[in-house]
Amino acid sequence: xxxxxxKKIADPTLAEMGKNLKEAMKMxxxxxxRTEEENGxxxxxxxxxxxxxxxxxxxxxxGHISLLGHSLGAYISTLDKEKLRKLTTRIxxxxxxxxxxIFRYENxxxxxxxxxxxxxxxxxxxxxxxxxxDFVVDGFNVLYNRKPVLYLSAAARPGLGQYLCNxxxxxxxxxxxxxxxxVFGSQHQMDVAFLEKLIKDDIERGKLPLLLVANAGTAAVGxxxxxxxLKEVCEQYGIWLHVEGVNLATLALGxxxxxxxxxxxxxxxxxxxxxxxxxxxVPAVTLYKHDDPALTLVSGLTSNKPADKLRxxxxxxxxxxxxxxxxxxxxxxACQLSQRLQESLKKVNHIKILVxxxxxxxxxxxxFFQELPGSDPGLNAIPAPSAxxxxxxRERHSCDALNRWLxxxxxxxxxxxxxxxxxxxxxxxCVRFSPLMTAAVLGTRGEDVDQLVACVQSKLPVLTCxxxxxxxFKQEVEATAGLLYVDDPNWPGIGVVxxxxxxxxxxxxxxxxEGEKIHAGLLKKxxxxxxxxxxxxxxEYKSMKSCIYIGMASDDIDISELVExxxxxxxxxxxxxxxxxxxxxxxxxxxxxxxxxxxxxxxERLLEEGVLRQIPVVGSVLNWxxxxxxxxxxxxxxxxxxxxxxxxxxxxxxVQGSGVTPPQTPTGTRTKQRLPGQKPFKRSLxxxxxISETSSVGHIEDLEKMEQSSGGQEASEANSHERHPEAxxxxxxxxxxxxxxxxxxxxxxxxxxxxxxxxR
Length: 760
Fold this sequence. Notes:
Strand content: 5-15%
Shape: elongated
Family: Belongs to the group II decarboxylase family.
Domain PDXDC1/PDXD2 second: 361-467
Strand order of the largest sheet: 1-7-6-5-4-2-3
Structural class: alpha+beta
Helix content: 40-55%
Radius of gyration: 42 Å
Number of helices: 24
Number of strands: 17
Keywords: Decarboxylase, Lyase, Pyridoxal phosphate
Pfam family, one: PDXDC1-like_cen2
Organism: Bos taurus (Bovine)
């Protein structure tokens, strides 16, 4: 607290409170100084112990001041009634006067509330009491005879109309949504001409137009309605005009746009200084103009309870601490951040800014886009023909998924920016930057905005390449047998594919255990390849069947190799799983067949040896005089062929039978050879600028060696036949000289291959 404030305080209680606040500020400054000296290694002595220790964000001195106001309010409430009444009245009047002067709202009153929409509900009660004189006596009967109408913009915050009806006890037909401009003007501004038409229709039906809620910065994109024109319409029909929005903060600046400045002439407005100034636990404020204190008391806008007046104490302390210069500086800094981002994004290709026409808006909304071939960006609002509607719809869904991925990536890379991802009805998925609501709390600086722009530029190549590779991936999957392309509009990657196994029921949408097992093995195999792509498994967009989701990609991805690898690997997994499943049945049948054959062999042996040899004593004597030369016969089971084989070959020749040669593992028809260190699914590096000068020679030599090793011998034989088509057959013996001459001639006729200069 400074000395100028102490001079203005005449009451002894206020002077004592100012002295206590000065001591509290000194304690806070000493605590902060000790923390800086310890470099954050030790906790503050006043930190909250237990599970909350170390989890509370750094709120700064102004945050401590606002939090101190709640404790001070509890302390003040213990004073005697007379002193408490004077003190609370002084705090309330000073805070109201300061807010009205800062935000250019002359001769206004203030209502402080915790819930942002609570102030508007109280204003609606005031409007009802003002327009219905007998409402206090007759109540609902007055409203039934002439129903009130509340007009809200279609771009208003979601759930506002339902909240008002629940608080006021009005039916939902009392709400009237005014559409926004569709042809002329902004897509998020209220259509004034259509509003007048709605008002005239309601008057003809015997209804009473009661209140209109305008936006000075819509909740979505920060657009401002034509408040000046709306004020004229409201004065003409006797309608209460209430304004809310983030752009009302710019009223504290030296330069204010005319559309926002017109809000100072409205009947009421709602301000949220807590997020604007980075003040925690600070109430919202509704400024209004009304001359009848009895109606404001009945409506709940004023109260005689000291506890209600003490709601303004945290804001009163914060305004004292910041001062006018501090308040203006924070709002100005937030507006400068938005302008800095807007100017930087204008220079980035494939980024569209949705608030480009409003230079004073502190909200920046942007999205990634890529125009269709031959399309005109100026005709986006015109409905496309039915033939191209499906293509435009697919492009819209693809861009929405990519913008959702872009927003999440930017939020992780630049957490200080306070970005939010939202879905708009016309534009689709967008990213919003609203520094007035986040910069003061997060401490956003200009360097964070520059980092945000750099991150956007670094993600653009991945976005554009992924969008371009999607169609190629779809064509390759549709041309590959056994693969099914799944059109998932919510997936931001290259695409989604499902392998159709032999027992796959295409008409069923239920869970497929066999397919899930195959896709789980396929996912494991793909992740083991250590490529730059990310693979995930999940249910299909419209069914419970498992699919493989392929993530974002760069421009050097070979789609044909990727699709072929997926098809071949899935086929191998299916064959392996089928072999394991059939193994039990094959082994069981083989054992049964072996038992039958062994029993048959025993019967043949009995017939061959005779009955006498089976008698114990006679058989031994007979075998001693005439031994039986019987060969040992057994059976072996070949798992590869799935058949029984005799063991006679093993006992006679003392070697193991070779059996049937197992089938070769299926491989892709377009499998290419990769260079050492080259990751899977990468395109060939031949002729690429990515090859360095030190490694280009070795890579080219490896490529040429691999190409020449496969067909070198065939090329040499074809070359010799072409050069000597009529050469006679060589004789059986020739003199050594002739051989040497012939060899010398071959060496002379051999073509000389000149070495390229790049390989020398």
